[in-house]
Amino acid sequence: QVQLVESGGGSVQAGGSLRLSCAADGYTYSNSCMGWFRQAPGKERKAVATVYTPWANPYYADSVKGRFTISQDNAKNTLYLQMDSLDPEDTGMYYCAARRPTIYSDGVPQCLVDNGYEYNYWGQGTQVTVSS
Question: Are 54 and 30 in contact (CB under 8 A)?
Fold first, then answer.
């Protein structure tokens, strides 16, 4: 049984930083699409960052480019999201997700096709609150 467990959320002031972690049990991150998604109150869940491991084709939402970094520790089978220069607009529940690549374009795995609905495995989420 696959389990993804997020941690690292919390409350910070604007301009601060947080690092989210997503530890996997029963799933290896190699040859996988991995992603971080955010759902703000009353809004649809949206992709924040996705990547194909072994570390290719990272995607970042325009709103987080230059501020957020997706990374991985293979030895710990853990995915991270480093979030810097946080803004109140970044507030929401953050979920990590995983799936094996099944959709390709010109031989390149596509890790964001249907706003994340194509992902098989999801964590329970961790709350991030940024105050002004």
Answer: yes
Does the pLDDT at position 60 exceed 80? yes
- Distance (Å, rounded) from C-alpha 126 to C-alpha 96? 9
Distance CA 101, CA 111 (A): 7
The encoded tokens of residue 94 equal 């953050």
Q: How many CB atoms lie within 10 A of CB 88?
A: 11
Q: Do 77 and 96 touch, CB atoms closer than 8 A?
A: no
**CA–CA separation, 6 vs 126, rounded Å?**
6
pLDDT of residue 117: 86
pLDDT in tens, 96-122: 999 999 988 888 888 988 888 899 999
Q: How far apart are CA 20 and CA 83, in angstroms?
A: 8
Please report, rounded to a whole number, the percentage of residues in the chain having pLDDT higher than 70: 100
Query: β-strands 68-73, 92-99: how paired?
Result: unpaired
Query: Which tokens belong to 83?
Result: 């979030």
